[in-house]
């Protein structure tokens, strides 16, 4: 083994002592230019050492970690600044969670001017500052608002497609939402930005997540390591690095630090958002902003009929929680704990009170449940049409968490038996609540009288409502130039962050009433990071990317085939995780042939994943009589899960 460097930061990353080591001023690694392109690198400095088999070295001006909305914006801007750019992406496709975004916030764009929409920028900022009790970063809001109109023009020049519709996004406070088309950023943003970046010479390394930053003895960033799917490492030597890895919605430790009381109670929608950027920033000495995090957070009822709403999926919190202030909530002790109108003004707020508790349950009568459906803003759900599905959900009750009964006593008994709640406390809470409804006065929590509707119309419903965290906002502390800063506010030279990794415009609560803000921040912070990185790099820039060593692509080692032997007639089922949720595939074998395939899933997007399976993969497998059919472009993860499930079904049939 060729030991070429000592990197205390890398070791500390593995042992959890990174910040302490960096803070203590321990010696960092040698300059990246001294390393060879193909070697094994072992890092020492504590009892544990990290060995990396570095097979290739790339040398560029700037390395961007993450190819989502902010990373793509940073990449295009960096190339336009004349920098040599490498983008590292954890997954096999670009776009990140950003493929689901429906539009972008802006003030005074040409589209707004053409539509005669006038908004006073200061009004937006004062709204945000008031809403956050002045915890929001006012200067970053100022920068964002001032740049937002021009950013729309820039995006259009990059080929991004807007429908031309600008509105208040289903009842927000301002007409700032610039809509993409119905297939969202998946069709209208990511492909154009990726192509523009490639045309400008940006080099993408896919399936190649950044793992550790490289710093020189002064603490300046000199590059980043990334790991290929086969376990080999590449070293990217860069004068600046932008962390744009999409937040930490999958990182239990960080979520708990951000205030989630019990992360087992969190329903996740996106995988891969492990907080890599936040971890790397902190290992390099960056300060944490996690305690001020917010995000796209909602209450949900898994599997309840509710139609589709992006990755919130079926039975989402929009149906039953934030827009249904007339339900009654209790916690894991069976006690009512807040006014259920918490999400009336801002549906991102309905989950906040639950953070103080371990579990949240919601109780409805038939009228209130129906009103919840009827009152939903988007999409409109037909109550009558969902009745059969609702009953099926309750009858099958796959998670043992959704009950209905004709009396409140029977309902409470069923729920308490299943969920180990105290019956006397639950029934006492319900009766007290109903008494307050009779009086039209929530003497405990002051819920407005209009929402104090007595639970009196059978059947009654009782649902567990897990918290749902789709995306987190915030984590890495940055200054106005998007430089990562330490606890004293001092910038770490060469280290930048963009997108939700460092979003500090919505501390503690996301203000959906100013619609499209996060995406506007993704774009603006990406552009800012690259502009200021270009200024920092100055005349040192080389304007190109060079590489040496084994630069072969990182590709998944997956293939599909039919098992040997005859297939026995029957129906076989297998479940695999797709892009956003489990996909259950059922294969029917008749006469030794695959004759029918059906799929069920909770959260795959209709316009990408479901369309890929229904329109392409199912017919292709039946025609070819093998799961070894082509991937549907843009739906790689759904395609992989589907083919694996089909193969497993066929293996059951062959055994
Ligand atoms: C379904 C959905 C709809 C939304 N709609 C809107 C909307 O309409 N308007 C709005 O303002 N906001 C919206 N948001 C919120 C927000 O704008 C998005 O979450 C946005 O994607 C954030 O951009 P990002 O670049 O920070 O992260 P992402 O777009 O998620 O990109 C992060 C990328 O980093 C990659 N990555 C992770 N770890 C590593 C690593 N170690 N190395 C390299 N790469 C890594 C990921 O694979 C991913 O590709 C929506 C979010 C979702 C999920």
TrEMBL record:
Belongs to the FAD-dependent oxidoreductase 2 family. FRD/SDH subfamily. It comes from the Bacteria. Residues 544-565 are annotated as: Disordered. It is an enzyme of class 1 (oxidoreductase). One of its GO terms (cellular component) is membrane. It comes from Slackia equolifaciens. Keywords: FAD, Flavoprotein, Oxidoreductase. SUPFAM superfamilies: FAD/NAD(P)-binding domain, Succinate dehydrogenase/fumarate reductase flavoprotein, catalytic domain. Transmembrane segments: none annotated. The keyword Phosphoprotein does not apply. Gene3D superfamilies: 3.90.1010.20, FAD/NAD(P)-binding domain, Succinate dehydrogenase/fumarate reductase flavoprotein, catalytic domain. InterPro entries: FAD-dep_OxRdtase_2_FAD-bd, FAD-oxidoreductase_2, FAD/NAD-bd_sf, FMN-bd, Succ_DH/fumarate_Rdtase_cat_sf, TAT_signal. It catalyses: dihydrourocanate + A = urocanate + AH2. Its EC number is 1.3.99.33. Residues 544-561 have a biased composition (Polar residues). Its cofactor is FAD; FMN. This is Urocanate reductase. Residues 578-653 form the FMN-binding domain. Pfam families: FAD_binding_2, FMN_bind. GO terms for molecular function: FMN binding; steroid dehydrogenase activity, acting on the CH-CH group of donors.
